[in-house]
Amino acid sequence: MAAPVAAGMEVAVIGGAGTIGAATAYTLATRRPDLDVTLTDVRTDACRGDAIDITHANNHASHAVGEAAAPEALGTVNAADPGPGAVESADLVVVAASGAGTQEGGRMAALRENTPVMDEVGGWLAELPERPVVTVTNPMDRMNYRLYRAAGWSRERFVGYALSETARVADELARLRDADPEDVYCPVIGEHGEHIVPLYSRATVDGEPADLDGEEREHLTDYARQIPYDIIGWRGADTSSRWVTGRGVAELALAILDGGTDEPVGLSTPLAGEFGYEDLSLGVPVTLDGDGVAAVHEWELSDAERAALDEAHDSIRETVAEWE
User: Which of 106, 123, 147, 208 has its CA at 20 to 30 Å from residue 13's CA atom?
Assistant: First the structure.
């Protein structure tokens, strides 16, 4: 593992005025105060307001209450007009831009509006040297692949965020087994959204096999699929699961900037034959390095898991085929 994020490193958040983009920027800036963060969005004034607000959040060391958490150094949080210039100095780019939110019935509702957004952002990237890109925009697997094609960069640079399902499964599994979520392990791969594939064959609690029965597996899968829409229903249709996603995206970005991961995690990346799939992006076990995806790990899956992964592949591939 590499040393922590070097001083002066920068993350650009495209879609920084949205709930996910703003939550990601806030988490990045407060978790690593010496990091430079740039927010860009067509809603430039909203980005400017968020940038100032986040900057103020990092200045609580100016009074006695905040002194205990005083950072050694402060980076900058800025807003930039959309375009290649907003990301040209960034060491890593987060793409959370969206013309539509997540709605009951599936993330596919955003496909038509967000496809041209990825083409535009990919055009920005095509003008710049390669660097890691974390895609959050829904439907994420499809948008990660669309962005990769539009940018023309190496496929390893494109990492699709899909860790919220893993966190949700861990939370519910911990409740089922009266365990600490930190002692629960159950990686999730497949499509981000409707065709998630929790790998129950690898699930453990306190280091021991979870031995989940069919009813428990069905419950956990249904829970992870449905809870984002429940949250929208409780909080309002103009919002989303901002905190779990914002924290997860920030942690993913920092892991890449820190040099990567030693253990595989379930993330989406363009495939070229791994698991027998190609010409699409799909959630699979990967390890990371400072450039993005270091390796795809072709784990042995149970028959049920492989069938579910094939269904996820077929669903995404149907969309991609329409682009060809």
Answer: 106
